[in-house]
Amino acid sequence: MGMHSVLEVITGFLYSLLVLAFFQPILDKIDNYYMTDHYAPLVIIVSHVSLGLVAFSLDSWSTSRGDTAQGLGTGAGAALASHVNYQLGLLQDPPLSSLPLTLPPVTTGLVLRSLLRFAIGVAVLLVTRMVMKAVTIPFLCRLFGLPSDDVRQARQQMKVELPYRYIVYSVVGFSCVCFVPILFWILNLD
């Protein structure tokens, strides 16, 4: 299958089911806390960074370490964006009279609008990632006294790779959940 064996995929799927079974009863409470509590941003950042530090016990460089940091960073950014959206009043539940929601008829205008939203959203996220990557790696290299001329070598240092992935993908996750929807609203594409 390439990178992972069939047994690893099955095991990962079963672990996911186990985690969902454990957290499903309290997901509403976690969601409510993330959106409403004053200390939620701090808890989000500390919990995601702590999960990453627990997971990164490897002595040598591994792509899985960066991938895990990337996933945790994206999740932290999306959770922070949900908090900001709620605090700004941007997460409005539909009125009960509009439930159940129905799909609009598929028209040429709807398809074109969807493609435009997709193109703008992807472009914004790619530019965000590119800018953050260009700023973060040299900053971290300077901060830790490492040469920044070889980006690949610098990124294999745990003290550069983990903060780099967290910072870049937290901003990307935040942009995806908060900034891009606001941009769609401004462009009347919401």
UniProtKB/TrEMBL annotation:
<feature type="transmembrane region" description="Helical">
    <location>
        <begin position="39"/>
        <end position="58"/>
    </location>
</feature>
<protein>
    <recommendedName>
        <fullName>Sphingosine-1-phosphate phosphatase 1</fullName>
    </recommendedName>
</protein>
<keyword id="KW-1133">Transmembrane helix</keyword>
<feature type="transmembrane region" description="Helical">
    <location>
        <begin position="166"/>
        <end position="187"/>
    </location>
</feature>
<keyword id="KW-0812">Transmembrane</keyword>
<keyword id="KW-0472">Membrane</keyword>
<feature type="transmembrane region" description="Helical">
    <location>
        <begin position="6"/>
        <end position="27"/>
    </location>
</feature>
